Amino acid sequence: GHISLIERYTFDANVMNTPMLFTPINKTNKFYAIAYQLYSTSQGKIVTIKIDDNGHIFGVQDSYIFEAAARCREPSMALVNGNVYAIMYRDSLTPSNYGRVATLQIYGNNGTIKKSIIDLWQFTANCYHPSLIKVDKNVFASVYAYNNGGNWYYAYVTTFNIADNGIISKSWIDYLEFIRRYYVDNYMPQQPE
């Protein structure tokens, strides 16, 4: 298969070379969100863009620094309900590499981001490569690696609740250590649409 470039657009010139998240917000209205770490400040930022069916990129619709106090690495995002979304990420500002999940609102009709966090939960003091999916109405599953301070990394899968309004339960329903390794290499695939 031949791949050809339709259009290129620089949505931010201040992007860190860490993994970014790209997810649809409203496919009918063609809005998408990108969550990433800023290069100059390491803060967590989210932008919305519009991409037409023919590949035309309309540019940034809105942006918001959702994590101003810490570094935001390896973000993962899932729809909670309506306009409410959850972002899970690693805060690497401290030596502990905290794992955090935040909830916020993104309006699918026009790509506007509400400039406030609904709720925030620091779920572990040590977290690498977190990933988040919605399992059922208010049940979410995450997977991440935990470093014991030495050479071993432990991979966990966990479940917890987020209410429709974005309030996080701040406790696990269940958790399981499913592997131990000398390196970080965990992920959770997205649910099929």
Write up what this structure looks like:
By secondary structure, the protein is an all-beta fold. It contains no helices and 12 strands. The strands form 3 sheets. Strands 1-2-3-4 form a 4-stranded antiparallel sheet, with no helix packed on it. The chain has a 4-stranded antiparallel sheet with strand order 5-6-7-8, with no helix packed on it. Strands 9-10-11-12 form a 4-stranded antiparallel sheet, with no helix packed on it. The radius of gyration is 17 Å and the shape is globular. The two termini are 24 Å apart.
The oligomeric status of these chains comes to single chain
**Spatial shape:** globular
> Order of strands across the widest beta sheet?
1-2-3-4
What letter string, H or E per element, gives the SSE order?
EEEEEEEEEEEE
**SS-derived structural category:** mainly beta
Features:
mainly beta, four-stranded antiparallel beta sheet, disordered C terminus, globular, 193 residues
Summarize the topology.
Blueprint: E1 21-26, E2 31-37, E3 44-51, E4 57-67, E5 73-81, E6 84-91, E7 98-105, E8 119-124, E9 128-134, E10 139-147, E11 153-162, E12 168-181
Antiparallel strand pairs: 1-2, 2-3, 3-4, 5-6, 6-7, 7-8, 9-10, 10-11, 11-12
Task: Summarize it.
The protein has strands at 21-26, 31-37, 44-51, 57-67, 73-81, 84-91, 98-105, 119-124, 128-134, 139-147, 153-162, 168-181. With 193 residues, it is an all-beta fold.
